[in-house]
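Known limitations

Files may contain more than one protein. Parsers should not assume a single record per file. Below, a two-record file is shown to illustrate correct handling: read the sequence, read the token line, then continue until end of file.
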Amino acid sequence: MPSAKTSFVCLPCRASYKQPYDRERPERICPRCARPLIHAGSAFAAPPRRDRAAWRVLAVLLHAGVRFHKSCCGGPGYRPRTPREVRERMTYARRSGEPFGEALVRLDVP
């Protein structure tokens, strides 16, 4: 049986690559720019390359440690899609003291 594939992302190139996950080789290199790829998870769906706002949101999520792994019951859960949703959650995190990674995956902001 072939090994399961997962997504690796290059933010400067705005490219995503599905590759087998191997614990022995955690670092992957982008074939376009030779920079390290970021492991995004198996439930990741890349935005269109021309959608710069979506890639900026994705960069914030990945740098905050948010990944797109499948859960047992239907996907990775809520992830913000627009810069406005990210700003709302970042403002909430600053005011409440909640870690950015947790605030970014919060469905509703009080």
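...continuing to the second record:
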Amino acid sequence: MELRDYVRILHKSWVLILACLLAGLGVAALYSLVVSPKYEASTELYVSVRSGDSAATGDLVQGTNFARQAVTSYVDVVDSAIVLDRVIEKLGLDTTSDELAEQVEATSPLNTVLIEIVVTDDDPELAAEIANAVGDNFADVVVNDLEKPEGEVASLVKIETIQPATVPAAASSPNVPLNLVLGALVGLALGIGIAVLRSVLDTRIHSLHDISQITDKPLLGGIALDPDARTRPLIVHADPRNPRAESFRSLRTNLQFVNIEGGPRSFVVSSAGPGEGKSTTTANLAISLAETGASVALIDGDLRLPKVAEYLSIEGGVGLTDVLIGRAELADVLQKWGRGRLFVLPSGRVPPNPSELLGSAAMATLLATLTERFDYVLIDAPPLLLVTDAAVVSKLAGGAILVAASGSTKKQELAGAVRALEAIGSRLLGIVVTMLPTKGPDSYGYGNYTYGMTHDLDEVFDTADTRERARRRA
């Protein structure tokens, strides 16, 4: 993924990331409140080698070097049982040397003869007592046991306390600021990780950017999500000033500039799967094209689950199928809709062989007649991945337009629909993304009805041409 992909993920999932950040802070704060405070007390010892008053300089240097070498071994003696057992006995502690050793830590700075003993305990006073007791008993064990020569000769090793342990005034742990910082960092990392993982695993289309990763075909437009789309599907007619209606007008403008190389301006509108808004998109696009004064023929080519007649509130019992089988004339079933030059051809009765009808010579003749008489012909076709109807009729039209629903259509489904069109040589003109959110990184920044009327086909076209000439003169 590119940098902009990560920025988009962060923008899109900022609520999740913030929640994880706050959760990390909460866990860190709760831990800091629940855990028992610990206190550290430390004492510092100085290790040296005894020498007489007349000791030469070389003897002093040799003794210092010996002390430095011995200190590294003495550090391991501090928390040994021979020292800690005496501490336990002296202070009357109810513990074992192994348990006490976990509270004691001894270190020595490099190239020094100093030993620092740090004791951690829940009780600050007891921590100081243990630290001093460990230092005293350690010195006694080393001087009088481990480094004592045979006989009555005194040990040459001398260990003195140069900094006794004092009662600590504040707890060393928990370190609340540090815990909060670590909790915030862990929560932030977890939130970003979940956001990136969710984005990688999510194969649905969410934006126009996702479309560009699947196909290089132009993005004709993005239609905003409308929760009331089912109750008012014809938003261009019902609420012309609505931002969603403007989205269809932008789609109309882009479609007008699509270069079809002199071919017929007939377009098949389909989708990869059902429920992606292809029928509402086709109907609103037809209405918006008719608003410009262009003559538009809208064909309901979904002979399996027709919706255009329902959306436009016209009679759909007789229509395309009747024309294709020769049962009715085109002029008798073509219905004028609204005040513009929009004519609708409903699907008619659902046939047993939709694919055969849509790919027949009669369908080719019908489309040739309509494209000759109308400025635009729009065909609402079934989903490409379910049936072959859309692919078949797209061969007869000037091109196909694919509709994909943001947050619903999967990338592999759209890619499959694109391949289905390319496999039969149909021309994909572009993609329309529907149901785009109005906010966030994925956002895409009624006239008179005529019911059941029939028209003589030549009269329909002549009337439309007369009105167009009158409009141009005005």
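Parsers that stop after the first record will miss the second one. For reference, the second record is described as follows. The longest strand covers residues 39-49.
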